[in-house]
Design brief:
Length: about 425
Amino acid sequence: MIMHLLEDNISINLGTLIAATRQERGLTQDELAKGICSIPYLSKLENDKIEPNQEIVSLLLQRLGFSVDQLIQEQQQLNVDILKWYQAILERDDANIEAYHDQLTKSTKNIQNISLIHNFKLAKLRYFLYKQDAIAAKELIKYFTKLKSKLTLSQSLYFYCFYGIYYCIINQHEKGIESFKEAEKISQRLRYEEPELIYFLALTYSHLYNSSVAIVYGFRALDLLNNSSQFLRSIDCQLIIATNLYRIGQYEQADQYLQNTLKIAHSLKLDHVRTIAYHNLGNLYVKRGELEKALGYYQESLSINDPKADSSFYTTYCIGEIYIELGQIEKAKDLIGHAMNKLSLLNPKSSLLLKLELLKLEILGNDQQIEQFLEHRSLPLFREKSDWRYLIDCYEKLAKINAKNFLYKKSSHYFQLANDTRKKIMY
């Protein structure tokens, strides 16, 4: 069961419920208690200062129009629906995601069960992260941060896991790892491995280019995901494993994973997955030095992808690099110019626009222009975005330009920055 640690976490605080319902219906303590118990007893019950007497509680609830069994059943069903909502999010079932969102937003309005409220808000936090709504997610993170000490261990596990996802969405992957590691500590105390947590550890280490650790978590996540029948996430996991395998030179194994992913994606009509798999096959064959084959895979990815998606422009950038490497300069110019014009209209603040512009300058071959562009535009932006891999490329380009002009001290400085950045993402 997905998120099963929260499955039974719905104990009802009857005193709080009685107080809230009484006030909602405009009854005084005297009116509710009359003939059932004393006012002081009711006051202590409502403020959770006395162990509730089941007979008295039943009578008070009857006067309010409730029964204990009915309340338990309703709240158990509500918790089941919250967990189904979370499951729909993981399965990317957009129709059910929105249906549960609307249903639960209404049905939880008058709930006084604090554990149930926390479960709902945790699922809502995951919903905002799924929608890439970092602003709304941040508000819920503030809510949970204020009451961390009141969360159960299982709720804390999911909070730190989701907090890590939030950091990754805003491109703060190192902080994301810190939150995931907090969740992992709690997971060890609970003696339970949450597949989603292990998957995101693999994904985040992959973003940081720490391939060896990404592969270890990737295989752990893949096993957990397959055992819990989370097949879509399992496909994502195979892509992470394949990406990091080719990064460390395990080309044959990476190719097997990518080809297997393509077969599954084709049979399930998962075009988004096919786009990523073809792109990664392109990356793999660039690494192997087989540029024509890489070009074919990139073009296959581009033919399937949404032409307005950032990933489409990144594939175009990779194709442009191959054209330059193959000496097909006019093709590269036309491709890059078209992509820049289109992207500047769709997303003028995209960092990809800057990468394409640099590629265009490299075609022209003016080292002075390239150096100024790298120092004054590329480096500040990619430091801000923590794009460590591209920062390394920029530092190395600057080092080579300065070495070419016999400025060895400056060249050495940039090589050192590249090595320091490489260590940062490896450890």
